[in-house]
C-alpha cells in the first residue's frame, strides 16, 4: 500500500497566498485536563464559514498573531460543522498564549493541510481505535465521523488511556461512547487512583487484553510515540498486518506545506505526505527519525 | 550572437537601472554579496568570483516580511506584503548560482505555490557571467554542468578581453537587450575566443566527485552510524554551510509585535545543523549531531534527486571555503564506504 | 623547525595512545583548503601520522572537549590552553581527564587581513611565510611583506600568556608574543575615541550583516550552556529574526555571559562569515574584567569562576 492508497489528499489550494491565515473567533473553551483545553472556533468571514471543508485527520496551522504559529489537528468531525475544534496541550510559547485567550478572542487559521484517514478503505471493516492522552484528538474527529455514519462500518472497539483520570480528554464524549451499545469502549489509566473504578494499565497491555479480532479490521493508533511503538507489536501479535494499522506522526512543523524543511523523515515530509501513515509505510521508511 | 565593449557595459547597466533595481556582486557592505549597483563601482566586470552570500538571498532573503497585522475595533486586520515586488536584474551571476535558483524553484513551485518566492522570481532577469576563475575547491563540472553553462540564465556574458560576448537565452533576455545601443553583432572570431575562454575555465575546475558512484553508495550507508559519527566529529553545528549554500532553502516563521499591538510575521533562514530545528516538546528526532550531518548530505544527494530528479548541490564550494573547521563535503562524498545492503534495504529492493 | 615539532608530536601521540594513557588525541590534520588545517580526533595510534603542526593551526580545539568522553590529549597553542583551563575552572571538564600538549606558535596569520590587504582570495595567494619578524606573501606576479601588526590575528597581538603553567607536555619552546598588546588595542582605542552616537552607528552597520548562523557561539569554547538563551522561547529573550537590533542584543548578551571565562582567543571573529569584528568586543571585555577584578580567565585552574564567586572586598556592594 502506498501513501496515495491510504490517504485522501485533500489539498487546500486556496486562492492567493497560502501563508495568510484566516481570522477565526473562539466561541467556546472546554477545560479537558489541567494542561489541555479544547477551543471551539469559527471563521469570521461568513463565506469561508460556509464553504470551508476538511476531512478527519487533517491539521491546521493556528496563529496567535504576534506570538507565532503552531500545528494541531482539527479534532472535530466534518460531520458536525457548527464549529471547528482543536484540543491543545500547553507545551510551549504559542500553546501557552492560546491557553491564556478567552471566548471572543481572535486566532489565525491556515489549512486544512495534510492527508486524512482513509474512510473508503475503512468502510465495511471492523474498526479498532487505540489512543493515549491528547492522541485522542485526531481520533475524536474520526470516531464521530464514523459514528455519524454508523451503518457503513462493522464492530467498533475503542481503547483509550491516560496517565491519571484527570488526564483523560473529552470525558463527555467518553461517556457517550460508553453508553453507545454499538461501541466496545475501554478506558484505562496508567496507575491506580482514588475514585477510579475503571481499568488500570498501559494502553498496549490493555489493548492486548481487549484483544480485538484482526480479521477484516483496521486499527487506528494515535498517542505519544512511546505508546505507538509498544502498541504496534501487540496488534501484530493479535494478527493485524502492518497494512491494517494506521497512525499519525507528530513532527515539528512550521509551514505545513512541505517547504520549510523540518518535518522530513528521509524523503518523506510528514506535513505533505502525511501526517497519516500505515505501519507498513512506516516500516518501509529508510530513516528511523520519527 | 552579440557583444558589448567593456567600456560600454556601464551604459547598459544604466539603461537597465531605469526599469530594474540592478544588483551586482559587491563587497561594499563588508561581505561579498549581490548589492544594489551604486552606478560607480565596476570592479565586478574584471574580478568576479562567487559572492559569499549566495544570490538566493534576492528571492529568499535571510529575513522576509510575510504580512503585517494590526488590531482595530472590529478585530485583526492583515496587511499582505507580497504584492508586486520591485523588478530586479541580477548582473554577473555565475552558472552555479543560477542553477541553484532553478533547483530551489522546484520546492517553491511544488504543490502549494510560494508567492513570496515566486513573485520575486517572476520579476527578475538573470544576467549570467561565465565563471573564468573557479575556486580551487569548486566542483560544478561533476554535477552535469560547468562554469560557463548558460541553461539557467536569461542572458549570458563571457569575458573575451576588451568585450563581453552576449548570448540571449530566453525571451526575457532578448527583451531587455532590445534597443541597447552599445550592443553589436559578434564576429566568428569573438565566438571562437569565447569558446576558448569557456573551455579553459572548465579545465580549471579541479575538484571532482563521482555522482554515479555516490548514487550507488548512499543507499547503502544510511544506517552506518560509525561512518557518520566519524564524518561529523569535527562539525560544530553552526549554520554557515547552510546559510551560505545557494540551494538550502529551509526557513523558520516568527512573529514580532510592537507595543501598540500591531506587528508582523516574518520568515527567516533556518538550518538543519541546529539541534533546535527539529526539537519537539518531548523529543527530538535529530538530537544527535551525526544525524544532522547525515541529513545535510542526504538531502542534497539522495532526497532531492528522489523528489525532484536533480542533485540539490551545484558544487559552488561555499560550504567548504567558509567552514570554520574545514569540513569538506567532497571528502565525505568521496569516502563513502561501498557498504553492504541491510536486510531492510534488500526487502525494499525486491518488493 | 615546525617539521621537527610535528615529528615529535606524532611520536608523543602514538606513545600516549599505545600506552593507553589517553583514549583520544585531538589535534590538527591537513586541511583541504590552502592555508587551512582541520580538527582531527584520533583514537587509533596508526592515525598519529595524520597530525600536523604548521603556521595555520588556527582552531581552538578546546571547543570539542566537553563532548568527548574518556581521557583526551589535546594539542594546544598557549591561548587554547587558557580556554582549556577556563573549562576546568567552570567545571565543564576535569583537569585530570585532559592531557595538554603545548606547541609553539608564532602568531596566527589572519587570512582575512591578508586578503583585505592584497585584494586576493585564498586560492590566489601563492604562499605566506615568516621572514624574520615579517610575513612574506607571494602571489602570481609578485610578493609583498607585511609587519606582524598588519596581518596577525587580533587576539595574537594581545597574546600575553607569560606565567601560564598548565601544560602537561611542551614540544618546542612556548613564548608569548612580546610587545603586541598595544597593537591589539588599536581598534578598541579607535572605538573609545568615538562618540556614543558614532559607536552606535558603527555597530548598527556591522550587525546588519549578521545572519545568525551562530558560528561565533558554536566555535566558542566557553559558550558551553546546554541551552542558549536565544533558544529559549518562554520567555523569548531575543527574537530569532536576524534584524540588526536583535543581532546586537544576541551578541551583547553572549559577551556578558562569557565575561570572566572568555580568553579572547579570537575564534568567534575568525569564524564569522559576515566579517563582524567581534574581537573588539572580546578584547574590551577582557580589559574590563582585568581592570575591575584583576582577573584573567584560564590562567589558574584553582581560581573560582569570576562570575560565580564573590569576594567581600569587591567594589560592588550589591551582594552584601
- Biggest interface pair, counts: A-B, 44 and 54 residues
Number of domains of chain B: 2
What can be said about the biggest beta sheet of chain B? 8 strands, mixed
Number of helices of chain C: 12
Quaternary structure type? heterotrimer
Estimate what percentage of residues of chain C fall within beta strands: 5-15%
**Structural class, from helix and strand content of chain B?**
alpha+beta
Q: What would a concise description of this structure say?
A:
In chain B, 36% of the residues lie in helices and 20% in strands. Chain B has 351 residues and is α+β, with helices and mostly antiparallel strands. An 8-stranded mixed β-sheet of chain B has the order 3-2-6-7-8-9-1-10. In chain B, strands 5-4-12-11 form a 4-stranded antiparallel β-sheet, with no helix packed on it.
Describe this structure in words.
The complex is a heterotrimer of chains A (290), B (351) and C (320). Chain A has 290 residues and is an alpha/beta fold. Chain A has 10 helices and 17 strands. Chain A starts with a helix and ends in a 6-residue tail after the last helix. The relative contact order of chain A is 0.15. Chain B is an alpha+beta fold and 351 residues long. Chain B has 2 domains: 2-67 and 76-204, no CATH class; 211-350, no CATH class. Chain B is globular. In chain B, 49% of the residues are buried. A 5-stranded mixed β-sheet of chain C has the order 2-1-3-4-8. In chain C, a hairpin with a 2-residue loop joins β5 (125-131) and β6. The chains are: A alpha/beta (290), B alpha+beta (351), C alpha/beta (320). The interface between B and C is large, with 40 and 41 residues.
Amino acid at each position: 500500500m502506498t501513501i496515495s492508497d491510504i490517504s485522501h489528499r485533500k489539498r487546500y489550494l486556496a486562492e492567493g497566498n497560502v501563508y495568510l491565515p484566516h481570522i477565526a473567533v473562539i466561541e467556546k473553551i472546554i477545560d479537558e485536563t489541567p494542561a489541555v483545553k479544547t477551543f471551539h472556533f469559527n471563521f469570521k468571514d461568513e463565506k469561508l464559514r460556509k464553504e470551508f471543508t476538511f476531512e478527519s485527520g487533517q491539521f491546521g496551522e493556528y496563529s496567535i498573531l504576534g506570538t507565532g504559529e503552531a500545528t494541531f489537528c482539527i479534532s472535530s468531525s466534518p460531520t458536525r460543522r457548527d464549529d471547528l475544534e482543536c484540543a491543545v496541550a500547553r507545551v510551549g510559547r504559542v500553546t501557552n498564549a492560546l491557553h491564556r485567550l478567552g471566548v471572543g478572542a481572535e486566532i489565525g487559521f491556515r489549512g486544512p493541510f495534510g492527508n486524512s484517514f482513509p474512510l473508503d478503505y475503512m468502510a465495511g471493516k471492523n474498526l479498532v481505535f487505540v489512543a493515549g492522552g491528547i492522541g485522542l484528538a485526531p481520533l475524536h474527529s474520526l470516531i464521530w465521523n464514523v459514528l455519524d455514519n454508523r451503518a457503513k462500518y462493522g464492530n467498533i472497539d475503542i481503547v483509550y488511556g491516560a496517565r491519571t483520570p484527570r488526564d483523560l480528554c473529552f470525558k463527555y464524549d467518553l461517556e457517550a461512547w460508553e453508553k453507545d451499545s454499538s461501541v466496545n469502549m475501554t478506558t484505562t489509566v496508567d496507575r491506580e487512583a482514588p475514585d477510579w473504578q475503571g481499568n488500570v494499565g498501559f494502553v498496549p497491555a490493555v489493548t492486548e487484553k481487549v484483544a480485538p479480532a484482526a480479521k477484516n479490521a483496521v486499527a487506528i493508533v494515535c498517542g505519544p510515540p512511546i505508546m505507538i511503538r509498544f502498541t504496534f507489536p501487540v496488534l501484530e501479535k493479535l494478527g493485524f498486518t502492518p497494512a491494517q494499522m494506521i497512525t499519525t506522526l507528530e513532527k515539528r512543523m512550521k509551514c505545513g506545506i512541505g517547504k520549510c524543511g523540518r518535518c522530513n523523515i528521509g524523503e518523506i515530509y510528514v506535513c505533505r505526505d502525511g501526517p497519516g501513515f500505515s505501519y507498513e509505510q512506516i516500516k518501509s521508511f529508510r530513516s528511523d527519525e520519527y | 550572437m552579440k557583444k558589448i565593449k567593456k567600456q560600454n557595459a556601464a551604459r547598459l547597466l544604466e539603461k537597465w537601472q531605469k526599469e530594474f533595481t540592478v544588483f551586482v556582486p559587491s563587497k561594499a557592505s563588508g561581505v561579498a554579496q549581490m548589492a544594489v549597483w551604486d552606478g560607480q563601482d565596476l570592479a565586478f566586470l574584471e574580478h568576479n568570483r562567487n559572492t559569499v552570500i549566495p544570490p538566493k538571498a534576492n528571492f529568499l532573503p535571510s529575513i522576509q516580511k510575510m504580512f503585517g497585522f494590526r488590531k482595530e475595533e472590529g478585530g485583526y486586520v492583515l496587511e499582505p506584503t507580497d504584492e508586486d515586488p520591485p523588478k530586479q536584474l541580477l548582473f554577473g551571476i555565475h552558472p552555479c548560482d543560477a542553477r541553484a535558483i532553478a533547483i530551489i524553484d522546484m520546492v517553491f513551485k511544488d504543490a502549494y505555490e510560494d508567492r513570496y518566492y515566486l513573485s520575486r522570481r517572476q520579476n527578475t532577469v538573470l544576467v549570467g557571467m561565465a565563471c573564468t576563475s573557479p575556486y580551487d575547491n569548486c566542483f560544478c563540472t561533476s554535477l552535469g554542468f560547468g562554469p560557463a553553462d548558460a541553461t539557467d540564465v536569461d542572458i549570458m556574458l563571457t569575458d573575451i578581453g576588451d568585450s563581453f560576448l552576449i548570448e540571449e537565452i530566453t525571451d526575457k533576455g532578448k527583451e531587455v537587450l532590445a534597443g541597447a545601443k552599445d550592443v553589436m553583432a559578434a564576429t566568428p572570431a569573438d565566438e571562437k575566443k569565447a569558446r576558448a575562454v569557456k573551455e579553459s575555465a572548465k579545465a580549471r575546475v579541479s575538484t571532482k566527485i563521482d555522482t554515479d558512484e555516490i548514487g550507488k553508495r548512499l543507499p547503502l550507508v544510511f544506517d552506518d552510524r560509525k561512518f557518520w559519527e566519524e564524518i561529523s566529529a569535527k562539525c560544530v553545528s553552526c549554520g554557515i554551510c547552510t546559510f551560505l549554500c545557494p540551494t538550502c532553502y529551509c526557513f523558520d516563521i516568527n512573529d514580532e509585535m510592537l507595543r501598540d499591538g500591531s506587528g508582523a510575521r516574518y520568515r527567516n533562514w533556518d538550518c538543519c545543523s541546529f539541534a533546535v530545528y527539529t526539537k519537539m516538546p518531548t523529543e527530538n528526532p535529530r538530537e544527535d549531531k551525526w544525524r544532522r550531518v547525515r541529513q545535510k548530505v542526504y538531502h542534497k544527494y539522495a532526497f532531492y534527486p528522489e523528489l525532484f530528479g536533480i542533485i540539490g548541490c551545484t558544487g559552488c564550494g561555499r560550504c567548504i571555503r567558509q567552514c570554520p573547521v574545514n569540513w569538506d563535503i567532497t571528502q565525505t562524498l568521496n569516502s563513502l564506504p561501498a557498504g553492504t545492503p541491510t536486510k531492510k534495504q534488500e526487502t525494499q529492493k525486491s518488493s | 623547525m615546525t617539521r621537527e615539532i610535528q615529528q615529535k608530536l606524532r611520536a608523543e601521540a602514538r606513545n600516549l595512545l599505545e600506552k593507553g594513557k589517553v583514549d583520544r588525541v585531538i589535534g590538527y590534520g591537513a586541511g583541504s583548503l590552502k592555508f587551512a588545517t582541520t580538527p582531527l580526533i584520533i583514537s587509533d595510534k596508526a592515525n598519529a601520522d595524520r597530525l600536523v603542526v604548521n603556521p595555520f593551526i588556527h582552531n581552538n580545539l578546546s571547543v570539542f572537549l566537553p563532548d568527548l568522553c574518556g581521557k583526551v590529549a589535546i594539542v594546544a597553542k598557549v591561548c587554547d590552553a587558557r580556554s582549556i583551563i577556563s573549562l576546568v575552572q567552570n567545571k565543564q571538564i576535569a583537569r585530570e581527564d585532559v592531557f595538554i600538549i603545548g606547541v609553539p606558535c608564532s602568531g596566527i596569520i589572519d587570512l582575512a587581513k591578508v586578503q583585505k590587504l592584497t585584494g586576493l582570495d585564498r586560492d590566489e595567494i601563492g604562499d605566506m611565510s615568516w621572514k624574520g619578524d615579517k610575513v612574506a606573501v607571494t602571489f602570481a606576479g609578485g610578493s609583498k611583506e607585511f609587519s606582524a601588526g598588519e596581518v596577525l590575528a587580533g587576539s595574537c597581538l594581545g597574546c600575553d600568556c607569560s606565567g601560564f603553567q598548565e601544560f602537561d607536555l611542551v614540544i618546542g619552546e612556548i613564548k608569548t608574543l612580546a610587545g603586541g598588546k598595544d597593537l591589539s588595542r588599536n581598534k578598541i582605542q579607535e572605538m573609545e575615541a568615538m562618540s556614543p552616537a558614532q559607536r552606535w552607528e558603527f555597530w548598527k552597520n556591522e550587525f546588519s550583516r549578521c545572519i545568525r548562523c551562530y558560528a561565533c557561539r558554536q566555535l566558542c569554547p566557553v559558550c558551553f550552556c546546554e541551552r542558549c538563551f536565544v533558544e529559549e522561547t518562554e520567555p523569548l529573550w531575543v527574537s530569532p529574526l536576524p534584524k540588526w537590533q536583535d543581532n546586537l542584543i544576541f551578541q551583547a548578551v553572549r559577551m556578558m555571559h562569557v565575561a570572566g571565562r572568555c580568553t579572547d582567543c579570537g575564534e568567534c571573529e575568525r569564524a564569522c562569515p559576515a566579517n563582524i569584528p567581534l574581537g573588539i568586543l572580546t578584547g574590551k571585555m577582557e580589559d574590563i574584567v582585568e581592570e575591575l577584578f584583576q582577573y584573567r580567565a584560564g590562567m589558574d585552574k584553582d581560581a573560582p569562576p569570576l562570575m560565580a564567586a564573590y569576594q567581600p572586598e569587591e567594589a560592588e556592594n550589591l551582594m552584601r
